[in-house]
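Quarterly update from the structural biology core.
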Amino acid sequence: MMEKSVENSKLLDKFFEIGLEHKFLDQTPYELLTWDDCINTLNEYFVEDKWIRLFPDFSFVANNVTNYPQVQSILNHLKKINPNKAYNANLYCNMSTTGSTFGLHVDTQDVWVWQCVGTTKWAVHYNNGSYHSYEGVVVHELKPGNMLYIPKGLYHAAKPLTPRFSISFAVFDDVIK
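Predicted structure, tokenized:
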């Protein structure tokens, strides 16, 4: 059991290193969050009037979702690799395959996406914004337990293939003092 834990830790160390290329991890060692966890978080955010974005098609974004041990474990691993950075964890939920996403966009921070429930198709673009060409596009289908790293500055887009939710971890360049 200890060997697998050490092996997982080394794999995660490499995966969580910030770089210029995107990375895909087919199975994280973390126990997955469930639909119940997702709904409980949304209920908590509505009751406590925390920041949540609700789209007309029943898609949700909840910011600063850190109340789960699995989320804390991932954040702790990120902090171990990059100790002087600022971090955030957000929940993204689509109740249908036609649910809202942010379309093709670029982030100003490095992002890791942890798929908890359902399947989401992700396209990562290496073609400097030439959206009409598939040259330089890498497509991944994230399933429960998969994780995707998208470096800042790379265009990307998500499309839910099933009802789904994921946790997105952002690492900001802000240095913690």
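The chain has three helices and ten strands.
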